[in-house]
Amino acid sequence: MELSNREAWTAFHGMILGAIFLLAFSGGVASFWSLRPQWVTSAGIKERTYRLYAGTTIMAIAAWLTVLTGTYKVYVWYRAAPPSGTTDFSKYPKAALLANPDKADWHDFGMEWKEHIAWIAPILATAVAAMVIYYGPRLAHEPRIRSILLGVFVLAFGIAAVAGMMGAFITKAAPVL
């Protein structure tokens, strides 16, 4: 199997960074959930705090890399305008979607989500990572703050998950070749 440059960037953007994001989220959620003084010793709190640092920080970095590569690399190809008089839109995904009334909603809703709302995910993930670094092991003794951060962390993941699904569906409907 051989990938074109565009396909490789699209795979890196969606699959590689997406997998890192998902794994970091899983580690972060597990660490948030298990960071309770009644469940672990002081040494366990320290170990889980380091895992929480890693999960939240890696998720934030992966989220930023995903939106940056999507916005400034992959989206440029998606949005390219076809030359005047073009009837074959296979190399112009946005034009292909808009030319087909049955697929235009993929651009109108799906790309709006990806272009604008998806930027909220790295912002929220970064805020959570910053608060985890700030509070550190004290989070074990602050259940309310821990719960709020876990909620924001899950919200960041949910926003990114919807963006990822939209990207997969849009790529299926009009691939960036």
In short:
With 177 residues, this protein is an all-alpha fold.
What kind of sheet is the major sheet? Answer: none
CA-to-CA gap between the ends?
Answer: 15 Å
Look at the helices and sheets and give the structural class.
mainly alpha
Shape: elongated
**C-alpha Rg (nearest Å):** 20 Å
The total strand number stands at 0
Order of helices and strands: HHHHHH
Task: State the low-pLDDT regions, or none.
Answer: none
Strand content: under 5%
The domain tally reads: 1
Q: Mean pLDDT, as a whole number?
A: 91
| Helical percentage | over 70%
Q: Counting H and I runs of at least 4 residues, what is the number of helices?
A: 6
Polypeptide structure, described:
With 177 residues, the protein is an all-alpha fold. The protein has one domain. 76% of the residues lie in helices and 0% in strands. It has six helices and no strands. α3 crosses α4. It is elongated and about 70 Å long.
Provide the descriptors you would attach to this structure in a database record:
single chain; 177 residues; mainly alpha; 6 helices
